[in-house]
Every structure is written in structure tokens, then in C-alpha cells.
Amino acid sequence: PRHVRIPRKQKTGTLVFRCKRPNSFAFGVDDGDPELAREVMKIFEDEGIQVTFFVVGKGLEDKYANFTAFYKEMLQRGHQVALHSYSHPK
């Protein structure tokens, strides 16, 4: 749409505006709480959908948040895991 401002491409990034695979689509779900993300993962499983979760790397260092186990669970369920950023700065 004309009213949407498109951000400038960063030196290290690639902007993607549409899926290249036929009959597919993309949307984002911001994580942060593994229990809420598990609910989303359950919906995907119920619908037979495989997705790519873009995760924040710093969560792997937090032993109390248990992100390591959660990211492994994503992989075990057949999803892909990709790096969103290390620390998700504002």
C-alpha cells in the first residue's frame, strides 16, 4: 500500500516482501515467553504446519528461561530455527 513506509535495507540484511514458494505465506510471532510460544507451536502441530522460528540468541545464555530446551523442542517437532538477532536491541 502507498501509505506503508518501507525501511531502508541494512548493509547486512535482505528485505523480503513476499514468499517465493507457491501456496505459502509469512507472518511474525514475537517470542519471549516459551509457554506462550508452545501454545502457538501446538496450533501449528494441530494444523500440520511447519514453520521457521526466528529466535534471539541471548536467550540461550539464560539458564532460568530454559530457551535452550525450547529451541531444541522446536527442532524436534520438525520446525526450523533461525537467528533473529543476538540480543534484540530496541
Order of helices and strands: HEHE
Structural class: alpha+beta
Strand arrangement in the largest pleated sheet: 1-2
Oligomerization state: single chain
- The overall average pLDDT, rounded, is 78
Strand content: 5-15%
End-to-end separation in angstroms reads 26 Å
Shape: globular
Question: Can you summarize the main beta sheet?
Answer: 2 strands, parallel
Helix segment tally: 2
Helix content class:
25-40%
Using the CA coordinates, give the radius of gyration: 15 Å
Counted beta strands: 2
Uncertain spans: none
Report on this model:
The structure is a single chain. With 90 residues, the chain is α+β, with helices and mostly antiparallel strands. Helices cover 27% and strands 12% of the residues. It contains two helices and two strands, in the order αβαβ. The chain has helices at 34-47, 67-76, and strands spanning 52-56, 80-85. A two-stranded parallel sheet has the order 1-2. Strand 1, helix 2 and strand 2 (80-85) form a beta-alpha-beta unit. The protein is globular.
